[in-house]
Write a structure and sequence with these properties.
The structure holds two protein chains of two kinds. Chain A has a domain at 39-99 and 108-160: Rossmann fold, CATH 3.40.50. Chain A has five helices and nine strands. Chain A has helices at 19-23, 28-40, 70-79, 136-148, 207-210; strands spanning 44-47, 59-60, 63-68, 86-93, 114-119, 122-130, 150-151, 156-161, 204-206. In chain A, a hairpin with a 2-residue loop joins β5 (114-119) and β6. Chain B has helices at residues 11-22, 83-96, 115-118, 129-141, 171-181, 198-212, and strands at 2-4, 26-30, 39-42, 55-57, 59-64, 69-74, 102-109, 123-127, 150-151, 161-162, 185-192. The longest helix of chain B is centred in the last third of the chain and has 15 residues, at 198-212. Classes of the chains: A alpha/beta, B alpha+beta. At the A-B interface, α1, α4, β9 and α5 of A face β3 of B. β9 of chain A pairs antiparallel with β3 of chain B, so a sheet runs across the interface. Chain A: InterPro entries: Proteasome_assmbl_chp_1 (IPR016565). Chain A: One of its GO terms (molecular function) is proteasome binding. Chain A: One of its GO terms (cellular component) is endoplasmic reticulum. Chain A: Belongs to the PSMG1 family.
Chain lengths: 211, 244
């Protein structure tokens, strides 16, 4: 690809592989740096019962609602959460280039946070508000650590998330669409009726909701 | 086992989509892996309302017992530093399922070709030594061109020749590992650039078909391949009427 100044610019490939990365062998210093970065990017899930230092049985959970992204988190704050019916039971501490969360549970709507709430009247109902961005390499870890703490039999998981309308692929132009609108994806095992149409191909879901 | 490498233009992956869609293959499993970027959507090969609601993720396995064919489709890029663990896991899986042969569909940057490669066919093949013994002769009959090795230090003569597949993703790693582990692997690749790579996918899948004869290649082999419904709208939505 040539530019106006005459230098050749390598076009980024959809294949997504960084050529430099694979050509070089790792030196011990590289390994050390990589290990340090990996440690820094590790996710910690802290549950309220861990404060006493005791290990706990897997959490019995019947319904788990996860809100990912600021819009979904705000939806839960505005319509579902209140301090009377819900109590904070956990927090995720993580760091990446886009955000850092802390272990404080007293958060402002503009902060980046990831908190877990439990319905006081039915402690098997769990809710997660995740307004921070969980990076690609942290998503699997988040998944394993959060779901690893719960007993998954008869567990129903609902994931709430938002995407820009401009990303929606459709025959017509997105300008003429009545937005916002809802679309859903569900597993075979989910037998209840869904409240909105299913997401059609070629649209896909990425990042933490996909994980 | 037929699989793609995530490579320039995603040509291997597009070609695999054509194979799965045309042969109407059944999904038999998936890879639960932390090495690929997560994604999920509904059935990309749906042909009707009824079969459109099966979820599909980033690494899935399909099979066609009548042709003893197993296909792995990879739908997202590798997470940084995770391509090596993925290759290791993949090759140990290949060995554990006692797969006879692996065919890897890939591509390489067209702009990296040398003068000789610019002429003639943009398609190349590679065979591991174990497979060379079995099918090397067939490749010669088909008049196929083997991927050339390049000088390790271009510009300096008398240096060792090495295999170099720029833009090929994990192709070189999988191939060299298969050579050393005695796995029968063939690599089929096309030189191409980023852009509308659908024609490249057709060329590559027809190349594959010359050898494996997955579909009858009649007068116009390209028309025999079925385009999956998920290939719609690859280059954007409809235009807003207000534009005019």
């Amino acid at each position: 690809m040539a530019t106006f100044f005459g230098e050749v610019v390598v076009a980024p490939s959809r294949a997504g592989l960084d050529e430099e990365e694979e050509a070089r062998e790792e030196t011990p210093e590289d390994r050390e740096i990589r290990r340090e970065i990996e440690k820094k990017r590790e996710i910690d899930v802290l549950w309220s019962w861990q404060a006493g230092g005791r290990a706990r049985e897997p959490l019995v959970c019947s319904r788990f609602i996860v809100a990912i992204g600021r819009n979904a988190a705000a939806f839960l704050s505005s319509f579902i959460l209140d301090s009377v019916c819900w109590e904070v039971v956990g927090v995720v501490k993580l760091w990446n280039e886009w955000c850092r969360t802390s272990s404080t549970t007293n958060v402002l709507p503009t902060d980046s946070f990831c908190l877990f709430y439990r319905l006081i009247s039915d402690p098997t109902v769990l809710l997660c508000q995740c307004s921070c961005y969980v990076a690609e390499d942290q998503q699997f870890q988040w998944l394993e650590k959060v779901f690893g703490s719960m007993q998954k039999k008869s567990l129903q998981v609902t994931i709430l998330s938002t995407c820009p309308v401009a990303d929606y692929k459709t025959q017509e132009s997105t300008l003429t669409l009545a937005s916002p609108f809802l679309k859903a994806l569900k597993t075979k095992e989910f037998q209840e009726p869904v409240c909105c149409p299913l997401l059609e191909q070629p649209n896909i879901v990425r990042d933490l909701p996909a994980a | 086992l037929l699989q793609p490498a995530v490579s320039v233009g995603n040509v291997g992956q597009l070609a695999i989509d054509l194979v799965i869609s045309t042969l109407d293959m059944t999904k038999v499993g998936y890879f639960y892996t932390d090495c690929l970027v997560p994604m999920v959507g509904n059935n990309p090969y749906a042909t009707a309302e009824e079969n459109s609601t099966e979820l599909s993720i980033n690494a899935e396995v399909y099979s066609l017992p009548s042709k003893k064919l197993v296909v792995l489709q990879i739908r997202s890029p590798f997470i940084k530093n995770k391509y090596r663990p993925f290759c290791e896991t993949l090759l140990s899986w290949v060995k554990s399922i006692k797969c006879a042969r692996v065919v890897l569909l890939s591509s390489s940057h067209a702009y990296q070709r040398d003068d000789e490669q610019l002429l003639g066919t943009p398609l190349r093949y590679l065979l591991t030594p174990d497979l060379e013994k079995a099918v090397g002769g067939r490749m010669k009959e088909l008049n196929w061109k083997e991927m050339e090795k390049v000088a390790a230090y271009p510009g300096i003569s008398d240096t060792d020749k090495v295999l170099h597949i720029p833009g090929g993703g994990i192709t070189k790693l999988l191939f060299t590992e298969s050579c050393s582990e005695g796995i029968q692997m063939a690599v089929l690749l096309k030189f191409c650039s980023e852009g509308d790579n659908i024609p490249d996918a057709f060329v590559l899948v027809n190349y594959l078909n010359e050898w494996l004869q997955l579909i009858k290649s009649e007068v116009n082999p390209s028309s025999q391949w079925k385009i999956p419904s998920s290939w719609r709208l690859l280059f954007g939505n409809g235009l807003p009427p207000a534009l005019f």
